[in-house]
Design a protein that fits this description.
The protein has about 100 residues and is α+β, with helices and mostly antiparallel strands. It contains five helices and two strands, in the order αββαααα. It has a two-stranded antiparallel ribbon. The structure holds zinc ion (ZN).
């Protein structure tokens, strides 16, 4: 999936915080980082603003969002195109 297609799919807004910065401030985020085995499939990719992407760092989305309830709530409402197993991992990590 091309960057432009991903940004359009997500409405040019960060799935974590909801901000719609200028397109140059948007980035592609891997819900499951590549270093943990995540791939470049559309269900593993979301649009993130640079601030959120930087804050998330190398963590998996579920590990980061377990500590970020507002961003988690926004993500669960808006990142509806990710793979179900990733969504389940986020809900599971948040329930601990
Ligand atoms: Zn953001």
């Amino acid at each position: 999936m091309r960057r432009s297609e991903l940004f359009a799919r997500d409405g040019y807004a960060c799935v974590y915080c909801g901000r719609s910065p200028p397109e140059v401030e948007l980035s592609v985020d891997h819900v499951e980082p590549r270093r943990l085995g995540g791939d470049n499939s559309s269900g593993n990719l979301v649009t993130a603003c640079r601030a959120c992407n930087r804050a998330k760092g190398g963590k998996a989305a579920w590990a980061w969002l377990a500590e970020e309830p507002e961003r988690r709530a926004h993500f669960l409402e808006h990142a509806t195109r990710i793979w179900p197993r990733l969504r389940a991992a986020i809900l599971e990590a948040a329930s601990k």
